[in-house]
Amino acid sequence: MAGGNEVNLNESKRVVPLNTWVLISNFKLAYNLLRRPDGTFNRDLAEYLDRKVPPNTIPVDGVFSFDHVDRATGLLNRVFQAAPQNEVQWGIVELEKPLSTTEVVPVIIFFHGGSFTHSSANSAIYDTFCRRLVNICKAVVVSVNYRRSPEYRYPCAYDDGWAALKWVKSRTWLQSGKDSKVYVYLAGDSSGGNIAHHVAVRAAEAEVEILGNILLHPMFGGEKRTESETRLDGKYFVTIQDRNWYWRAFLPDGEDRDHPACNPFGPRGKSLEGLKFPKSLICVAGLDLIQDWQLAYVEGLRKAGQDVKLLFLKEATIGFYFLPNNDHFYCLMEEIKNFVNPSC
Q1: d(C-alpha 72, C-alpha 61), whole Å
Q2: Is 65 assigned a catalytic role?
Q3: Tens of pLDDT along 308-329?
């Protein structure tokens, strides 16, 4: 199990760039303050500590954004697009014309991480990440502000992801290419990767086309303890105890970690064999304690005959992609760019 805090901090400092270490360590400190032993969560303090940014119709780093709130459900989606080259058009959001009538423009529906409990679509760290995706991948990004646990347990986040997918699919101004359709990809990190998988399964069963899934160290688990969980417990920002708390906060009361939401290919999971499931890009950080569950997920896809590419980054920790200060960041961005632009 995890050793003393000093040993753990020194070990993570050895492999993580200093500014990334400070960033994730601050998150870790805040998260520890917000979780309560009785399973409740200090949401008021969480909202106070989470640095949020508004949308901007005047471009920042070449990208503008705006929020859409569904009147019926209250679900917020933040849309990020590349700014027009003509400055006269800045500040004007065009919702009548398609993205392009000739070129294909990928639309990435992004689910933020935070173990189903933390962060939001307007958290500064994810706002910045989505802008980078737009610039690097030449895509539109729709970041989903799904409902969070423990106030809203399973399956609320999945339902919100499904609603976001249907909304994106129905927007004519997100269409592109000669065949005038929306070229949708799903993406997410941590719990967001988990949500992307489950939304993709629902879409495949409903015969709704998704072109690909991009999962960044997705949050999966199970009842048994794996070798990586034991070996990495507490060494790189995360402990088994942390993970247990979040699963208890998200899963239905009385459920264990072999629930299909947590363990999709476990004893109660469903096979994807024969299902038209989208191709997948799975990024696994070699210093993430739940990597064994992520690798088991990759193997589950392969056994079901699905198309999956594994990007295993041996010396990466969780959150390495938040700052462009390491080789792993650029490697991942190149993989995502090629994944959503296969003809390039």
Answers
A1: 33
A2: no
A3: 999 999 999 999 999 999 999 9
